[in-house]
């Protein structure tokens, strides 16, 4: 079974976004060789053994008794749980054993650089990484079976953004920090989704593989944390080389916390781009679900919260975010997603000079701290615009309703 490749895996690498391909080419990064491409297909059947074993055990217990213990260990550490059950202790002993290669200073350097992207950084995450990710039909199958359409893409992105902002908060990835807690909680929900969706009568493992498998998770982690920094270059958000290395280091540690295999985690920023290229070449196979998920997301700005001139600002926001998608995804991907193909990429062009100036400020003494604080305020303000209610990790999956 470990070497079975689901039918969703293409026969050969598929085209990837032009922007990612161009940067990869400039850095001398090539597409996956046959062995790597086959491995990505095989790992569509691989889950997260550590968390899956815990979830299997938890399913045999009274969740009303066990879930509070999980939350206590997550918030205060496993040693705070008196007479902790062996499976719970095994899980958190592993999670709390920070790998020797983790550099706390690099994590803080990366987090500050990523916070500096502000609202524009979140725009790229939303309009490029998340929207473009709907071309990954295999992953869409899981989303649709966990209530993605019912809960809405707006709520899903707010939830994803809250996770990312926890990760890049000052001290977010310190032991028991908010980024650590949110990442482990997401990992737990992923495991519950694998159990729930995999047991559905209409889930075809021979076609789709395992829900939220290793290949999907690797693509998601680089898409969430690397793609915004990469796309930011196209909007004038520029960091120091050392900061890009630190961003890759942060991505590696978050991926480790998420349960992703070591050989699917980046060693440096160039390696992160390689992973982004390779996973995209294995997963970007759109189908009818791509339009079903993308079109409602394009219209989400029409429901955003503005204090003044709401109708006008909502229409403006819709055009603004479509222009970002058009600039980075290109007309072919826009057509695949059922979105307007003649949208002019005006917002990135307007944002470019402004962000170049701000990036320059970040290079000055004290400038990075100022930019990080400013960007953090912008990002939180954008979240409040998207949804009035605070985002809750796991709220967009119906599985969360059964494991809370």
TrEMBL record:
UniProt-listed Pfam families: MPAB_Lcp_cat
Top-rank taxon, per record: Bacteria
Domain ER-bound oxygenase mpaB/mpaB'/Rubber oxygenase catalytic residue range list: 130-345
The protein's name in its UniProt record: Oxygenase MpaB family protein
Organism: Gordonia caeni
